[in-house]
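Morning run. Coffee first, then this:
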Amino acid sequence: MADALAGIKVLELGHMVAAPYCAKIMADMGADVVKAEPPEGDPARARGPFYKDLPDRETSALYLYLNTNKRGVTLNPSTATGRSILKDLLAQVDVFVEDTMPGTLEGWGLGFPALKRLNPRLIVASITPFGQTGPYRHYRAYDLNLFHGGGQGHMVRNDALGARPPLTGGGYLAEFDGGMTAAVAVLGALYHQGLTGQGQRLDCSIQEAVMALERAVLTRYPNELFGSATTPLGSRNARSGMSGVQRCQDGWVVIAALEEHQWQGLLRLIGAPDGSARSSPELETHIRNWLAEHTMDEVYHGAEALSVPAGRLQTSKDLLASEQLRAREFFQAVAHPSTGPLPYPTASYRMSASPWRARRPAPLLGQHNAEVYCGWLGWGREELGRLAEAGVI
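And here it is:
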């Protein structure tokens, strides 16, 4: 079986989550992805959890997951020599994934017009918080800002508005979505490249990627004031009835009975009278009492049987023991020199002709410097050592 992106060369100049995840999707499809890190390493290396809870730049779970199937080099493009090396690498690849602030590449003499002259096939995917244009393009942002700025904050809203700092979702939801969105765009650009031999510049705003997930909520929001003209803003979505995270006998569940047939199914599930109002103190009490008597599995499977969307809040341990994920072979062992073999998530898709496989673990810092610089650029060992000593690689 051939890998879907076999023969495609990708250079990643990214940090933390969004750009590395974009490049990881291509690496998982078989592209030859080279990750260029600063000599001190991607900041993700310092983010836990760590293997055996011992901080180590080679054992961050975040870094290990995001960089499986890649090769890794060190490179400091803030130096003139580093920029020259970056240019030489870009002349040889099909895709460049980067997350520098807008204007940085232009300041290095590597704006898209220059890169197109250098390598007409090159696809440049730029992933930034707010895109390459617009009033916020030079603003710095973190996952928390982008999560709320893209509209997902309604899922974790604090009813005591202003009483506590903003809440966020688990993990790096906004950055993962930005990386996935950019990867889909790159796949389309690769199809175009195969037909025409021409590259493209792709501009991915993480905020806009998140907003696309919330397009229905953002469209409804201005039009969902209930009651009188004095109805407070907090009453929006009051019609949704039972939704969100709810405590049950042995943990937490999420139930989202938004459509009428789902609502009627929920009423049958909990034994409430037909025609019950969507929001009343009596119904809320009934729901809480019913949930307290049922386990997560009972709620999940009971809701599923009645076409009511529901899910269990599961720990990592729960996911590793999941019968569904085990049947899908979603977790597979990957052996890393610093951790030994551990179960890793594979991919969120399954392609029959090119299934996911672990070709290599995440790279150690600078692990493939000799392999890439000597192999791609024809350096000798002496030059490799000299540039390493100078802090260029």
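The mean pLDDT is 90. Good start to the day.
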